[in-house]
Each structure stands twice: as structure tokens, then as C-alpha cells.
Amino acid sequence: MSRIRKVEIENFRGIQNLSWLPSNGINCLIGPGDSGKSTVLDAIDYCLGARRNLQMADADFHNLDVDTPIQTTLTMGALDDALKSMDSYGMFLRGFTKETGVVEDEPEKDAETVLTLRLNVEGDLEPSWSLVSERAEAQGLTRNLSWADRARLAPTRIGAFADLNLGWRRGSVLNRLSEERADASAAIVKAAREARAAFGDDAKEQLSDALKIVTDTAKYLGIPVGDEVKAMLDAHSVSVSGGTISLHNEAGIPLKGLGIGSTRLLIAGLQRMAAQSSSIILIDELEHGLEPHRIMRLLDSLGAKEADEPLQALKRTLSATEIQFNVHNGP
């Protein structure tokens, strides 16, 4: 169950420079509107999320300074054996000292073994992801996390589009609950064939004049269409996508129709169940759509009362008792 040990953000939107050491469990980003809370979550999501492409704009650069690159650097600890493999990442393994927050290029005896991932965006707006290691760079070596490892480390985001996690889409928390996968292709193909045949019978009556004209024209031009052309559903009009299979209630009503609060609460609970494969969750505006008693239930589902934190939660809120990170904003 990997954890983010250190967050470093430079020149991204309202943040000129940020350095933050989040704790293992629940972390609150606290402050008024437009103070940079969402920017921190976006930076983490963009850097660690399982995405191959990222759309950036000049407005994403601090004070529109496109000559200074955007950099988000995340140091990841609590690595599993695969991420500490010398064959895969040996030259990129580093050491982290919790007491000082210092990351050193050579793993030390008393330091935690970590990997540091960096997202860099230059003025050409092309994002690049790479692992950080001075000794590897000195030898001309560069590499990124493998796609499988990125998918395992990717955080679940509970925000405006949280209901995407209620279907078996790419990156959905549902894919992390088990290794089971359903194939809807056969059922959809069968249904499409039956629908095409049924529609063709109806269309023969509804479009009889047009069909006769097409048939006569084709025959006149010597185009082989048989005795008559038919209007049927296009054989390619039914497609199967990652969101074809989604959750429904007992009555068959899609769970995407749930209220905002219920959706966020359910996804948080599912993320807890998937913690063995993905243990980082990002929550936009904790209190949005939730009554106080349901906020407490959500926090419980994240393991707020447990000594051995099952999840590392990074969430933003408008009010709380203390600010746990400092942002240095430029002029």
C-alpha cells in the first residue's frame, strides 16, 4: 500500500513553490476559496494518475510564465516488492528520511526506500513523466514507471465526475475490487442483431416509398441489391466501450442517478475495499453534498479512527482547525 511521502510543486497555476510532507492517513488542505487547494490535488492527480495524455494551457503556468517549466515531483514510499525490484527500478531507488523530509539519491541504511516521479511541462505544453535519479541521469539513463505500476499507484479522485467510478471504465475503482472481468460483447452483438431484424420489419412499412425508389434506381443502374433494399440498423452503430457495464439498483435504475452525497460516500467505501491494490484517494470539497452525520460516516470509511491507516486521503475543505501545508505564492 504505497504512500506519498513528499509533494513538491513549482510554477503551477496559483502556486509558485510548494513543499509538503503528507501523513499516512487523512490529510486536510484547508483554506478559503482560490487559495490553491484544488491546484494541489490536480497536481498530484496529473502526476500520479494513470493517463497517457494531458491537456495543458498557458494559464496553467504561474503568472503565465511559460519560460519556467511546471514541475510536480512526488516521492512515493511504502513500496511493494515489485516497485523495489533492482531489475526494474534499481538505479532509481532513493532514500527518504521522515524526520527531515530529505530525499537522497543513494538509499541509506536508516532511510526508507522510495521512488520519485516527476511531471514536467515546458512552454511547448507537452507533458513528460519520468523517475528522478541523479546517478541514473549521470549515466544517461531515463525511464518512467511501467504502465501497470502507474495503474496500481493511481489515486481515486472523488470530485465533480465521481460517478465515473460506478461503471467498469478505465481507472474505475470497480476494476480494483477483484480480478473479475465481464465481457458484454457477445450479449450486445446478439441484441444488436435482433434489434436490426425487428427494426427492418417496421421500417419496411414506414419507409416504403423511399425504399422503392432506391430499389428501382439500383436495378436501373445495374447495381445488385436483390429484389428489394431494406432499411435496417447500421451493423456498426452499436459499439462496446469501457462504460458499457455499470452498477444498477434492484429495480434496474443506474446508480449514477444517486445524489452527489450518496455517490461520494459509496465510492469512498469502495476505495476502502480496494485499498490493497490502490491506497491513495483525493477528495474535492469534503463536505459537498454530505450532511454532518454522513461526513462522519465517510471519514470512518477512510479509516479515520484506525491506528493502522488503510488509506492515505488527501482532501480539501473550506474550514477546519488548522492548516497542514504552506504555499509560497509569488508576487
UniProtKB/TrEMBL annotation:
Pfam families: AAA_21. It comes from Roseibium limicola. Residues 26-306 form the ATPase AAA-type core domain. GO terms for molecular function: ATP binding; ATP hydrolysis activity. PANTHER family: ATP/GTP PHOSPHATASE, ATP_GTP PHOSPHATASE. It comes from the Bacteria. SUPFAM superfamilies: P-loop containing nucleoside triphosphate hydrolases. This is AAA family ATPase. InterPro entries: ATPase_AAA_core (IPR003959), Bact_Antivir_Def_Nuclease (IPR051396), P-loop_NTPase (IPR027417).
